[in-house]
């Protein structure tokens, strides 16, 4: 089989990938939501129990906007795995919401291919079984006609955060790239996720309804499921019910 095509990305210090720099002890690497970067985890506590929260910052976003973004999940996973290598000597976890989940999955598979220590658990919020296709907004949006500026403004309005118009322009470019990249994603045929998965559904989720999250996951992973009260973007603010859930699963 031909090797996976990769976008040329400049070699950067591993620290560019993580906000903040990973401290000693167990870590939860948090993958960013579609269209945004590591700052989307700013409302989260610095620690969940004894586990430090470290947001992943991919190229092409926020302080890395001058670096070309990856065009495939496989290329993303390859470079993130390189950056993760110094931190695989302790317990660690992956956390992601909605479109972040495929990036976390592909990174797990990349680490498995290398024979590296794997995360103790993946916490996957608002995402259906990956081998069954895309979900929510990604599944029906027509990129040729969609008003992604309006979608970006709506994202911030739902989060209750004011945003400048020039920043909307920048984030719209990131969102379009994310959607285009997600469209080309294909879960590896027959693959089984080699770590336990905790699925989170949200009672008020109008993007990926809770009843779409659980079906099919047992076909490709060992899963636990928990349903939390809240809307689709509640995850980004890490409300008290989510913190309690994470304290249970990140052990």
UniProtKB/TrEMBL annotation:
Domain of life assignment: Bacteria
InterPro entries: AB_hydrolase_fold (IPR029058), TEII (IPR012223), Thioesterase (IPR001031)
Protein name, per record: Surfactin synthase thioesterase subunit
Gene Ontology biological-process entries: lipid biosynthetic process
Boundaries of every Thioesterase domain copy: 29-211
Family membership noted in the UniProt record: Belongs to the thioesterase family.
